[in-house]
Amino acid sequence: MHFVHPAGGTPVILSVSNTVLFGNTLASSPQAAAWAVSGRLEEGDLRRSAEPAIRNLVQLAGIADQDDVFEIGCGIGRIGLELAPRCHSWTGSDISKNMLIYGGERLSHLGNVRLQQLHNDGLAEFPDRSFDVVYCTNTLAHLDEIERWLYVKEAFRVLRTSGRLFIDTVDIESDQGWAAFVRGPTVDSEPGQPPYSPRASTAAELENYANRAGFVQVSVHRQPPLVILTARKP
Q1: What CA–CA distances, in Å, run from 192 to 26, 28, 31, 77, 134?
Q2: Least buried of 39, 114, 140, 213, by fewest C-beta within 10 Å?
Q3: How far is CA 153 from the centre of its chain?
Q4: What confidence category does residue 37 fall into, taking pLDDT thresholds of 50, 70 and 90?
Q5: Under a CB-based contact definition with an 8 Å cutoff, are residues 210 and 218 in contact?
Q6: What is the pTM of this model?
Q7: What mean pLDDT value characterizes the chain?
Q8: Domain limits at 169?
Q9: Per-residue pLDDT tens over the stretch 100-131
Q10: Calpha distance 24→21 (Å, rounded)
Q11: How confident is the model at residue 213 (pLDDT cuts 50, 70, 90)?
């Protein structure tokens, strides 16, 4: 896993987990990692796949030049590559060491980027009130409900006063989300990838997490097949 100091410079190793993680299987090569996070192999296609999420983040979370921004489940920096130039600093986290290695390579030219491997303690690697924006896109569908709640609660902790939360995930109440649910696990077309079926959510589930964590101005935005939640820390 790599760390790029905001002052710039060559990525250096922060820490290495000896745990064999499922995410590392998905990221056995740069090509496999790109396919796992986007279903694309070419860099141009990978970057274009990030455009809807970037547009939503800018419009709904109000990303600004002065913001310190944090992503839960950043993969290879698909979103971070596009978002880092728009903010003061961008920090990405993931449980997969391999994802972060490839992400470090893609983001190494940016001077305001940091990557951190997560372990089994939520966001324990980060102190309270570290960020202005916490977001999670294309990640909750890989998690069970208690993990989703844990990350929302931890997002509240690491946000500063008036910090913003942004989450998008598959909406089981949309026709597309329901179709994915009833279709069940599918074998990815990339060789060696395990079967995958997204764990869809509902707007009520996400609102419940945010309200119980202490967020205010909790809002839901539907963009099928996604449901998007935004909220603010008081």
Answers
A1: 8, 9, 12, 22, 32
A2: 39
A3: 15
A4: low
A5: yes
A6: 0.82
A7: 82
A8: 2-232
A9: 998 999 999 999 999 999 987 689 999 999 99
A10: 5
A11: very high
Distance CA 88, CA 85 (A): 8
**Which residues neighbour 81 within 8 Å (Cβ) at sequence distance 6 or greater?**
47, 50, 106, 107, 110
Residue 206, pLDDT > 90, answer yes
Q: Cα–Cα distance between 134 and 73 in angstroms, integer?
A: 11
User: Which tokens belong to 192?
Assistant: 């060696």
Domain count, the chain: 1
Beta strands in the chain (DSSP E): 2-3, 12-13, 68-72, 89-94, 113-117, 131-137, 159-170, 186-187, 195-196, 216-223, 226-232
Residue 101's CATH number:
3.40.50.150
Residue percentage of the chain with pLDDT more than 70: 76
Helix (H, G, I), strand (E, B) or coil at 48: helix
- How far out from the chain centre does Cα 146 lie? 17
Model confidence at 52: pLDDT above 50: yes
Q: Which phi-psi region, left, alpha or beta, contains residue 73 (left: φ > 0; alpha: ψ -120 to 50)? A: left
Amino acid at 111: G
Mean pLDDT of 206-224: 97
Q: Using CA of residue 126, residue 141, residue 105, residue 112, what is the dihedral sign? A: negative
Structure token digits, residue 197: 């079926």
List the one residue out of 199, 196, 177, 178 whose CA is nearest residue 186.
196
